[in-house]
C-alpha cells in the first residue's frame, strides 16, 4: 500500500505494545516527534490494537504531520486526509469574531462580519489572520471580496466549547 503513495519512502519498524494503550500512545507520539523529514501517517491496514493509539498520537500532533492517508476497506482506495487539530484554541481577542462567523453561517465576507460586530475592518482582518494561523478558518478572495469559512478544526472547537 505504501508504494502507491510514495515509491521511494524509507520504512522503519518499531514494536508497539498491543496490550498497553497508554504506552502505545506514548511510543507513537515519540516516533512522530523524533522523525526527521516529512512525517506521513497512513491510517489503514495493520492491527486495530495499534490503530487507535496511532490515531490519538497523530491527532495530538497535527503540526508535525506532513500528510495523512486513509485506506478504505470498502473500495480499496487510498485517500489523503487533512487531520483536524483537536488541541486548537481561538486567541481570546478573536473569540467574538469567531462566534460571529459561526452565527452568520460560513462562508461569510469580511464586510458582513464587520457590519455584524460594528468594529473596524482592520480589526476583523487581524482577527481572521490569527484564526487562520490556528487553523480555525480559511479565507479566499473572490474578486474584491474576502470570504471566510470555518475549517473542520474550527467546527470541532465550536462544538467542544458549546457542549
TrEMBL record:
Origin: domain of life: Archaea
A Pfam family reported for this protein in Swiss-Prot or TrEMBL: HTH_20
Keywords assigned by UniProt, alphabetized: DNA-binding
Keyword field contains DNA-binding: yes
SUPFAM superfamilies: Winged helix' DNA-binding domain
InterPro entries documented for this protein: ArsR-like_HTH (IPR011991), WH-like_DNA-bd_sf (IPR036388), WH_DNA-bd_sf (IPR036390)
UniProt GO molecular function: DNA binding
Name recorded for this polypeptide: CRISPR-associated DNA-binding Csa3
Amino acid at each position: 500500500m505504501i508504494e502507491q503513495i510514495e515509491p521511494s519512502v524509507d520504512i522503519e519498524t518499531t514494536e508497539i505494545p498491543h496490550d498497553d494503550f497508554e504506552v502505545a500512545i506514548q511510543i507513537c507520539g515519540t516516533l512522530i516527534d523524533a522523525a526527521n523529514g516529512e512525517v506521513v501517517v497512513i491510517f489503514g491496514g495493520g492491527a486495530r490494537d495499534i490503530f487507535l493509539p496511532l490515531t490519538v498520537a497523530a491527532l495530538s500532533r497535527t503540526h508535525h504531520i506532513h500528510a495523512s492517508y486513509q485506506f478504505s476497506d470498502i473500495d480499496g482506495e487510498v485517500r489523503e486526509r487533512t487531520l483536524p487539530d483537536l488541541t486548537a484554541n481561538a486567541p481570546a481577542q478573536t473569540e467574538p469574531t469567531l462566534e460571529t462567523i459561526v452565527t452568520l453561517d460560513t462562508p461569510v465576507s469580511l464586510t458582513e462580519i464587520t457590519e455584524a460586530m460594528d468594529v473596524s475592518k482592520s480589526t476583523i482582518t487581524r482577527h481572521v489572520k490569527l484564526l487562520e494561523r490556528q487553523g480555525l478558518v480559511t479565507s479566499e478572495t473572490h474578486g474584491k471580496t474576502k470570504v471566510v469559512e470555518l475549517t473542520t478544526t474550527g467546527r470541532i472547537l465550536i462544538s467542544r466549547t458549546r457542549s
